[in-house]
């Protein structure tokens, strides 16, 4: 029987059969200003010639799946002939859901997967648990790990011991990729150009030019310098969707010879925004969110664990999720946790080659687990026992 792995994130869905490679597609629908009446779903985004002023219709709000109409349309597109060609009665699905998901959402998901799509069997699981499974499979000698999953809506820090989630140690910070993009939109709109409607473009700017500072005050001082002394300033050429399809960053050499700039290029000049926006993950109070930052949350999570296990967690901190892709993220987190952790414990923060699909790859490994059939709920079991059997079997 085929096993479909679907890491159903709030921003992207990572999907693929367990014997194939992953495909990452936007988990939402779009409407464009120019084609107001037409709705595009998931990877149909590539068909939009002018994605300026793109209007996102998201199935997730504040990290929880609330718009089932949009989610169904994305899944229909995903499971349909053009993409996965899913044969539902012969397919098992591993699907991710957020920590502390509401039981009403879980029940709706059970109904849709079993009754509408009629999958043969289902396993609902957290993305963090899939990441932990991936880590334990590739590091069989390790007993503990701490998964830092920094996604679109929030960042979760979850300790695992021998594959079991330690619920008392879970911490959540309400900062994720969406908040960072919105913050960058506000800064640019206040300082330079009104971009509040340009979520798609500014998200691209964030991914291309932002980084995590290793010395915030030093970088702030550099960003205030004039002329060549300001090594942090970057000029970003915005797309016009006729000659420039995708925005790009000017090289420092181009910026020295401003004669190289073409007429008609719309430029965003970015200085301290480049590192001040990702800094929110480390100091949410900078923008008025009264929560601890990531390093404090990691130390707080580990401090709730039994004392003899704590050194194992400090040396196995695993990063996953798209917000971990900022240059300097791993180094800064390692340095800050090292400063807060007890001196006798070694600290090691690990960034996988692709943190976005790390949880999905964990699902792929889980599908080959000899105990996999014991973990799932089959359609027959669901028809016989209803939601009760899912609550009993799924540790979410």
Strand runs, count: 20
* Order of strands in the sheet with most strands: 3-2-1-9-10-20
Low-confidence stretches: none
Rounded mean pLDDT is 89
Organism: Muraenolepis orangiensis
Pfam families: Actin (PF00022)
Protein name: Actin-related protein 6
Family: Belongs to the actin family. ARP6 subfamily.
Blueprint (SSEs and pairs):
Elements: E1 2-8, E2 12-17, E3 23-26, E4 29-31, E5 39-41, E6 55-57, E7 60-61, E8 64-65, H1 68-79, E9 91-97, H2 103-116, E10 121-126, H3 127-138, E11 144-150, E12 155-161, E13 164-165, E14 171-173, H4 177-191, H5 199-209, H6 216-223, E15 234-237, E16 248-249, H7 252-256, E17 267-270, H8 273-276, H9 294-303, H10 310-314, E18 317-320, H11 329-340, E19 349-350, H12 358-367, H13 372-375, E20 377-378, H14 379-385, H15 387-393
Helix pairs in contact: 3-12, 4-5, 9-11
Short summary of the structure?
By secondary structure, the protein is an alpha+beta fold. It contains 15 helices and 20 strands.
Describe this structure in words.
The chain is an alpha+beta fold and 396 residues long. It folds into three domains: 2-126 and 356-393, 2-Layer Sandwich (Nucleotidyltransferase, domain 5), CATH 3.30.420.40; 130-175 and 281-350, 2-Layer Sandwich (Nucleotidyltransferase, domain 5), CATH 3.30.420.40; 177-278, Alpha-Beta Complex (Actin, Chain A, domain 4), CATH 3.90.640.10. It contains 15 helices and 20 strands. It has helices at 68-79, 103-116, 127-138, 177-191, 199-209, 216-223, 252-256, 273-276, 294-303, 310-314, 329-340, 358-367, 372-375, 379-385, 387-393, and strands spanning 2-8, 12-17, 23-26, 29-31, 39-41, 55-57, 60-61, 64-65, 91-97, 121-126, 144-150, 155-161, 164-165, 171-173, 234-237, 248-249, 267-270, 317-320, 349-350, 377-378. The strands form five sheets. A six-stranded mixed sheet has the order 3-2-1-9-10-20, with helices on both faces. A hairpin with a 3-residue loop joins strand 1 (2-8) and strand 2 (12-17). It is globular, with a radius of gyration of 22 Å. The two termini are 25 Å apart. Belongs to the actin family. ARP6 subfamily. InterPro entries: Actin (IPR004000), ATPase_NBD (IPR043129). It is found in: Cytoplasm, Cytoskeleton; Nucleus.
